[in-house]
Amino acid sequence: ETGVTQTPRHLVMGMTNKKSLKCEQHLGHNAMYWYKQSAKKPLELMFVYNFKEQTENNSVPSRFSPECPNSSHLFLHLHTLQPEDSALYLCASSQEDRWETQYFGPGTRLLVL
Amino acid sequence: AQKVTQAQTEISVVEKEDVTLDCVYETRDTTYYLFWYKQPPSGELVFLIRRNSFDEQNEISGRYSWNFQKSTSSFNFTITASQVVDSAVYFCALSEMNRSQFYFGTGTSLTVIP
């Protein structure tokens, strides 16, 4: 595997479900990011992790819970989501001191029913 | 406040035509970065270019060129002799130099018709 991978690629869940999105980077980076891409809206940064420590949380609702067990893996735990949370969730990684050059994964397309 | 506007929602061109994607930004910062990303149907964002606010030189990379005009707060992207593989959504973005926060535009969907 190379680059940034995300699983699953597609996810359908009910509002009472609990699911997790997984991101893995094979680039030796030490910073990882979660973004939300909704239709007709700009890409939104959700969370930033540097060296496994969360450094940014852009006022994201608590129903989204990130976890970064190591520099190569990033999770986004989802619970009691709303239909408006349906979006493409993109993961990215970079070197901590080269945040302006981020490598993105293919995203997880999430549909909340 | 930072803001990026891509007024063109969708553009269609015939193969081999030139096409320019517009990007206008707002920022109170005197130093910042500007970016263009390409998002093909597969979903991942592909980095195309980063410019520093203090470097207004235009840049050319193969069929791609970028026109940075600080006076009009614009950072336009031109594809020369477009190809079907150029079909994608293109995003312009702005960031402060000392903070890992991107401000993305809403994107321009480009379709190149064979």
Characterise this structure.
The complex is a heterodimer of chains A (113) and B (114). In chain A, a hairpin with a 2-residue loop joins strand 5 and strand 6. Chain A is built from no helices and 11 strands. Helix content of chain A is 0%, strand content 57%. In chain A, the strands form 2 sheets. In chain A, strands 2, 4, 5, 6, 9, 10 and 11 form a 7-stranded mixed β-sheet that branches. Chain A has a 4-stranded antiparallel β-sheet with strand order 1-3-8-7, with no helix packed on it. With 114 residues, chain B is mostly beta strands. Helix content of chain B is 0%, strand content 54%. Chain B contains no helices and 12 strands. In chain B, strands 2, 5, 6, 10, 11 and 12 form a 6-stranded mixed β-sheet that branches. In chain B, strand 7 and strand 8 form a beta hairpin. Chain B is globular, with a radius of gyration of 14 Å. The model of chain B has no long low-confidence stretch (mean pLDDT 92). Classes of the chains: A mainly beta (113), B mainly beta (114). Chains A and B meet through strand 5, strand 9 and strand 10 of A and strand 5, strand 6, strand 10 and strand 11 of B.
Draw up the topology in text.
The complex is a heterodimer of chains A (113) and B (114).
Chain A: E1 4-7, E2 10-13, E3 18-25, E4 31-37, E5 44-50, E6 53-57, E7 64-70, E8 73-79, E9 87-94, E10 103-104, E11 108-112
Parallel strand pairs in A: 2-11
Antiparallel strand pairs in A: 1-3, 3-8, 4-5, 4-9, 5-6, 7-8, 9-10, 9-11
Chain B: E1 3-5, E2 10-14, E3 19-21, E4 24-26, E5 32-39, E6 46-52, E7 59-61, E8 64-69, E9 74-79, E10 88-96, E11 102-104, E12 108-113
Parallel strand pairs in B: 2-12
Antiparallel strand pairs in B: 1-4, 3-9, 5-6, 5-10, 7-8, 8-9, 10-11, 10-12
Give structural attributes.
heterodimer, A: 113 residues, mainly beta, seven-stranded mixed beta sheet, four-stranded antiparallel beta sheet, B: 114 residues, six-stranded mixed beta sheet, 12 strands
Biggest interface, and residues per chain? A-B, 27 and 22 residues
Largest sheet of chain A: 7 strands, mixed
- Low-pLDDT stretches of chain B are none
User: Strand-and-helix sequence of chain A, N→C?
Assistant: EEEEEEEEEEE
The geometry of chain A reads as: globular
Cα-atom Rg of chain A, whole angstroms?
Answer: 13 Å
Would you identify the regions of chain A where 5 or more consecutive residues have pLDDT less than 50?
Answer: none
Given helix and strand content, the structural type of chain A is mainly beta
**How much beta of chain B, percentage-wise?**
over 45%
Distance between the termini of chain B: 41 Å
What is the first-to-last residue Cα distance of chain A?
A: 32 Å
The averaged pLDDT of chain A comes out at: 90
- What is the 3D shape of chain B? globular
Query: What's the total number of strands of chain A?
Result: 11
Helical amount of chain B: under 10%
The secondary-structure class of chain B comes to mainly beta
Number of strands of chain B: 12
